[in-house]
Amino acid sequence: MGDKLDWSAYDAAPLIDQVSHIGGSGGREMLLRVHGMHCSSCVGRIEQALASRCRRVQVNLGTGSVELGWDEAAARPSELMQAIADCGFRPEPIDDRPDIRIAQRERRQLLIRVGIAGVLGMQVMMLAATRYTESGTIEPAMELTMRYAQWAMSTPVLVYSGWPILRQALADVRARRFGMDVPISLALLLAYVASGVNLLLQRGHVYYDSVTMFVFLLLLARWFEGRGRALAQQRLRELAGAQPLTASRERGDGSVEQIDSKQLCHGDIVVVPPAVAVPADGRLLSHCAEVDESLLTGEADPAVRCAGEMVMAGSINAGSSALRVQVTAVCTATQLSHIQRLIHHAQQYRPQVQQRADRIARWITVTVLASAIAGAILWWPTGPDVAFEVMLAVLVVTCPCALSLATPAALAAAGSSLASSGVLLTRADALLQLPRVDTVCFDKTGTLTTGQMRCVSVQPADGYSADDCLDMAAALERDIQHPVATAFRDRQPMIKADRVETLAARGVRGWINNASMQLISSEPRDHQAGGLTWLDLIRDGRCIARFGLSHQLRPGARAGIEALRAEGLRPVILSGDSASAVATVAETLGITDYRAALKPGDKLALLRRLQTAGSRVWMIGDGINDAPTLAAADVSTSLVSGSALAQTHAALLLTTASLSALPEAYRIAQRTRRIIRQNLAWAALYNVAAIPLALAGSVTPWLAALGMGISSVVVVANALRLSVPSHRVTATTSPDLACA
């Protein structure tokens, strides 16, 4: 680990600005992920090694990170990273994304605001308690002093802690819209100003306790809601940091140069040392490799990849020797970047139930303002002080905070729980639609099977050798992303296929040495083994070879389907493969309803037929030919190894290799819908009950603040229950076996 690695690429633009930023004191700041730290002595070694070069060294053993602050004239980033490497650790710069840094700073500031409101609010409540328990027994001079103390402590709570609420309300007023912060700010300002007037005139009541309690409980609910949202965004931050910022590119003479990973091009060969992440999607050139794809797929055990197979950007070389990878996709074209875009889109997406709740909240806001004015008018004959308290109580107690938090808090917590189970949520509406499905349709190749196929039978025609036929098939499938192509990845043909194009649900065609070639699916003949996928290699209209390919069932396929069946769902297979191959998989998995030899249009027609008959369909597929069916299904799921088109049409993305995550996703969706309904029902009942009580004068301002705050906290706390695993036991079966 202490070898002199080349860190110099981080000393110049654009990488220096990508991994560090100018701090508030003028020096640079950088965040590093450090691999190999285990105890406090490791922390001490790093601090000692950097003490002479850095003004600030903050080591976090729990997160395995080091935050540095230094003067640019005193050291360069490469020197700091080499100092850490000399201690026996491996430093890894983290992309210094401004949006992540700003979000983290805002969460820290909100926590500080909550803390100040809580500490000062408790002091104000203790001073105000005498108003409700010992009225008339305290000397006027002492009571006046206590009121001034309440004013002194409530002012920073309103001005500093409550500033985000006031700022948003001001923006809403300028935009001429009724956000929920408008009545909140109006109540806070009215209570504060009225208390100040009464304090100066030494008459009536002060409401500083209501102000501080209102601010504290409201900010506390928002902090909990933000915490749930941060957990959901954690997956995006992890993925963003998975792709290394530099790459070791192999030159033509065999030497290696360290470059910015954004400078990689299609066809470049990169060298990936042990414990280093692959910088771009590519085809493995080394004979065999173990790669850690846990961040992408959730699988803890390293995956074994052979020469010719694809490795994804962000996967880590878990072996003991360096790997050689030929780049096939870079930057935004990588599978990792595509997943990041899907997650970002999901976090920006507002489901219909949330949009309806927000519209209702806006109407409630208008109703609250009208009710407050009506209450003041109704109680004015009794006395201005009573009328003011009623108006204040109505404004506070009926704030629609709980209603606005009911859905987003639950969706954020559910998204975090799904991610930990190996499922990424790309469209939040799926969580509400999934509990209503009754039929699950599976594609076979690449979905129920692993997508890694093996050629177990070659039957060349007279005049052709098996090797020549395999080379022609491999040339046709060289750049095709389909499970069938994996059966020929171990071949390195000297011939090249031109003008290659896919044939929907059939195969590929192209030209080799001016001959028209096709590799298309077919049915087994009488003397050929059933249960295999058979392909015909056709040259100028004549079949010159037949290939028999075997499948391997995906891990957890049998257990996952049995668990879904136990939930009352009916499994169906819709496949374009041969009838014998589909029947073998269906029999192995205990599925009685299956269709074979389907074209994309046939799959779509069958799905439409199921929906017309009243079924709600959950479609799970991975190929380009599955995209129309995924788009038409009530709920759709694709795999992380699937095509980009299939993932674009999917509402859920399965990142783990095991299908046992599917029933867990179904159960999380059931819990999510139940909790959203509970939250909405609680918010609605609370507001319906609170308005009459406040108008009747039965709720004081401090009690209104307590009720509103508790209702918001209850909604968020109920939503955060989704972050707790269900601990439900799924069906278990014997290990899944290979088909054929």
Notes on the protein architecture:
By secondary structure, the protein is an alpha+beta fold. Among the domains are: 8-96, Alpha-Beta Plaits (2-Layer Sandwich); 246-333, Calcium-transporting ATPase, cytoplasmic transduction domain A, CATH 2.70.150; 422-449 and 554-664, HAD superfamily/HAD-like (Rossmann fold), CATH 3.40.50.1000; 454-552, Calcium-transporting ATPase, cytoplasmic domain N. The chain has 23 helices and 28 strands. The protein is flat and about 115 Å long. The model is unreliable at 727-738 (pLDDT under 50).
Mean pLDDT: 80
CATH topology of the domain at 422-449 and 554-664: Rossmann fold
User: Number of helical segments?
Assistant: 23
Class of the domain at 422-449 and 554-664 in CATH?
Alpha Beta
Pfam family, one: Hydrolase
GO molecular function: ATP binding; ATP hydrolysis activity; copper ion binding; P-type divalent copper transporter activity
Protein name: Cu2+-exporting ATPase
InterPro entries: ATPase_P-typ_cyto_dom_N, ATPase_P-typ_P_site, ATPase_P-typ_TM_dom_sf, ATPase_P-typ_transduc_dom_A_sf, ATPase_P-type_domA, HAD-like_sf, HAD_sf, HMA_dom
Concise overview:
The protein has 740 residues and is of the alpha+beta class. Helix content is 47%, strand content 19%.
Reconstruct the topology from this structure:
Blueprint: H1 15-19, E1 20-22, E2 28-35, H2 40-50, E3 56-60, E4 65-70, H3 77-86, E5 90-93, H4 98-133, H5 140-161, H6 163-174, H7 181-201, H8 208-240, E6 246-250, E7 256-260, E8 269-272, E9 281-284, E10 288-292, H9 294-297, E11 303-306, E12 310-311, E13 316-317, E14 323-329, H10 335-348, H11 352-379, H12 384-397, H13 401-420, E15 423-425, H14 429-433, E16 439-442, H15 444-448, E17 454-460, H16 466-476, E18 498-503, E19 507-512, E20 515-522, E21 533-539, E22 542-552, H17 557-566, E23 570-574, H18 579-589, E24 594-595, H19 600-612, E25 617-620, H20 627-632, E26 635-639, H21 644-648, E27 652-654, H22 661-695, H23 701-720, E28 738-739
Parallel strand pairs: 16-23, 16-25, 23-24, 25-26, 26-27
Antiparallel strand pairs: 1-2, 2-4, 2-5, 3-4, 6-7, 6-8, 8-14, 9-12, 9-14, 10-11, 10-13, 15-27, 17-22, 18-19, 19-20, 20-21, 21-22, 22-28
Helix pairs in contact: 4-5, 4-8, 5-7, 5-8, 6-7, 7-8, 7-12, 8-10, 8-13, 8-23, 11-12, 11-13, 11-22, 12-22, 12-23, 13-22, 13-23, 17-22, 22-23
